[in-house]
Structures are given as C-alpha cells and as structure tokens.
Amino acid sequence: QVQVVESGGGLVRPGGSLRLSCTASGTTFADMGWYRQAPGKVREFIKLITPTGAEYTGAPFTTEPVRSRFAISRDKGLNRVYLFMNNLQPEDTAVYYCYADDNLKSRHWGQGTQVTVSS
C-alpha cells in the first residue's frame, strides 16, 4: 500500500523557521515535491526534487520570495524529503502537501500539514 506522510507543521511567529518532513512508502518513487494551499486559493507548487537530488523550482511560475526562502532536500537513496522554510510570513499560512511520483508517473499525495504564521 502506497503511503505519503507529512509532518512538522505548526504555529510559528513571523520571521521564524520550520522544517517539514515527508516519507513515502509502498513502492519505488521518482520525483517528490511540495505544494501548498492557502484558504480560498488554488494549490500552489513550491519545489520538487529528483532521486539524484536535482531541484526544480518552478520558475517563473513560482514567486521569487518562495524560491529564495524555501529549500528542499532529500535523503539519498530514501523516499524522504524535507522542506526548509525560513523567514516565514503570515501569507505563508497554508496547508502544505507532499507528493511522490511513482515510476509509472502516478502521483500520490499526503494528507497535508498545517502551517500557521501568526504573532
């Protein structure tokens, strides 16, 4: 059974940092990445990372503040990725979703983790 599980969300003050984690299991995965969805908005792509560690930032479809403040990494040889978020602002408040693409290019989503940035 394929599972994608995120963790690490929570409440943080403006200017703070968080690290989100995501573990996928149940098959072999290729690209993994992160989206977010703020209330009333469409789901927004953040970054993806390949099994070899190459990143795709989504430019120009992602905003520069997201590309520069958010970093993605992947445990080598494992289906585990991280999203490091720095200098968080209230507009970063959203549900953050991890996904993992299997080798048949089917996309599997996690349940999401809430990140709230508030003083």
Chart the SSEs and their pairings:
Blueprint: E1 3-7, E2 10-12, E3 18-25, E4 29-37, E5 44-49, E6 55-56, H1 64-69, E7 70-74, E8 80-85, E9 94-102, E10 107-109, E11 113-117
Parallel strand pairs: 2-11
Antiparallel strand pairs: 1-3, 3-8, 4-5, 4-9, 5-6, 7-8, 9-10, 9-11
Compose a concise summary of this entry:
This protein is mainly beta. It has one helix at residues 64-69; strands at residues 3-7, 10-12, 18-25, 29-37, 44-49, 55-56, 70-74, 80-85, 94-102, 107-109, 113-117. Strand 7 (70-74) and strand 8 (80-85) form a beta hairpin.
Overview of this structure, please?
With 119 residues, this protein is mainly beta. Helices cover 5% and strands 51% of the residues. The strands form 2 sheets. Strands 2, 4, 5, 6, 9, 10 and 11 form a 7-stranded mixed beta sheet that branches. A 4-stranded antiparallel beta sheet has the order 1-3-8-7. It is globular and about 40 Å long.
